[in-house]
Amino acid sequence: MFQYYFLLGARSLRRNPALTALMVLTLAIGVAASVSTLTILHVMSGNPIPSKSERLFVPQFDNGPLEGYKPGDKPNDEQMSYRDAVNLLNGKGGERRTAIFGVGMALEPERKDLGVFVVRGAATTADYFNMFDAPFLRGQGWAPDADQRGDDVTVLSRKLAEKLFGDADPIGHRVRMGGFDYQVIGVLETWNVLPRYQRLIGGDSAFGDEDDMYIPFATAIRHQVDRNGSTGCLGEVEPGFQGFINSECTWIQFWFETASARDRDTLQSYLNSYTAEQRKLGRLKRNSPNTLYDVMEWLEFNKVVGNDDKLSVWLSFGFLLICLVNTIGLLLAKFSVRASEVGIRRALGASRREIFTQFLIETTVVGLVGGVLGLLLAFGALALIALQSKALASVAQMDWIMLLTTFALAVLSAIIAGLLPTWRACQVTPALQLKSQ
Fold first, then answer.
1. Spans of all domains in the chain
2. What pTM did the predictor assign?
C-alpha cells in the first residue's frame, strides 16, 4: 500500500507543476539556509579528537604581579612562562607533557626556482606527535633525548615537503631555516584537524592552515628563533633573550595527557602542589585558583563557537519556519482542489486513516524532492561562504552526517507542513461533494 500511495504522490506532483515547483523551491530554500549554517556550527563545535579529548588537559595558573590584582580577577594569560614550562616538562604530571610556541623562520631552499620564503610552525617536544595523534606520511618524530640535546632536526608538513622536494623522499635531507641547517626526520600527512585545538594560542586561529614545520623546543631556545604568537609581559624584563626567558612573560602553551579521564583529580593535585611550591620560592604571588581544561572545555573557554554563530543558526531555522508556513498554505491550496476526489474515495469505502496516509505520503514526496534541491542549494551556499576567507573555507564542508541531516530535515519539514492540510482533507464530507458534482 505504501508503494501505491508513493506512486500516487509522485503523479500528483505533475497535476499542477507550477504549484508543485513553488512548494519544492520554498522548502528547498528554507532547508538550504538552515543546513548551511548548521553545517558550519557542526564543524566548529565538533570534538576534534574524540578518542582522548577527556584525557588531554591545558593547565592555567596566574603568575602575574600583585600590583593591580583583585581576588577573583581572571588569570593573567592562557599561556605560561618559560620557567614554568620547563619545570612542568621535567616534572611527573600526567603520562605525557608538551610545551608549544609558534615560530617563524626564513627558509632558503636548495631549488634554484624557489626564492627565500617564510615558514611558520611550532617549537615543541617529542610527546607532541603522539599526544595529538599526528599522522606521519614518512619517517617519525624526534626521540625524547633530542629534546634534551636540542638537536637540529625537523618534521615537515606534506605540503612543504612536496614544495621543496616534489615526489622525492625528503628524509635525511637538510633544509636551511633561520640561518641553521635542520635534518628532515619526518613528514606529516595532511593534518586538517578542526578546530585546531592544540594550537588555539599562538597558532593560525582555530580554523587556520596547518603548521609548515616542527622543531624541538630546546633547539628553538638555543637558536633564539623568532616567536610567532602572542606574548604577555606584566612584570619587569631584563635586556636580552636570556632576560626574556628568565622573566614572568607568558608565551608558551602547555598540554598534559593522562592515562585515563579518572586521573584528572590526580593531575589537579599535582598542579596545586607545584604552584604551592613556587609560592614558597616567592613566585605566583596572586594565589589564584589553578584550573585544568580538557579539550572541549578549552574550546568553550576560548569561545571557538561564538554567540554570533549560534544566533545565525537560530535565525536560519526561523527562516525555515517561515518557509514552512508558506508551504502549509500551498499544500492547503493543492489539497483543497482535490476535495471532490476525496469525497468519491470516501463514498467508495476509503477510511479517513487511508486518506490521511495517502496525503501524508504525498507531502513526503515533496520533502524528498525538496531535500535533493535543498542539498544542491546548500552546497552552493557553502561554496560561496568558502570564498570569503580561508578560515571559512575550512569549516564550510559538508560531511555524511550533515548530508543525511539535510534529507531528514527536508522530509520532516514537509511532513510537519502537511499535517494541517492533510487533516483538513480528511474532514471532507462525501455527501456534500457528491451533490456538488
1. 2-47+306-436, 62-289
2. 0.77
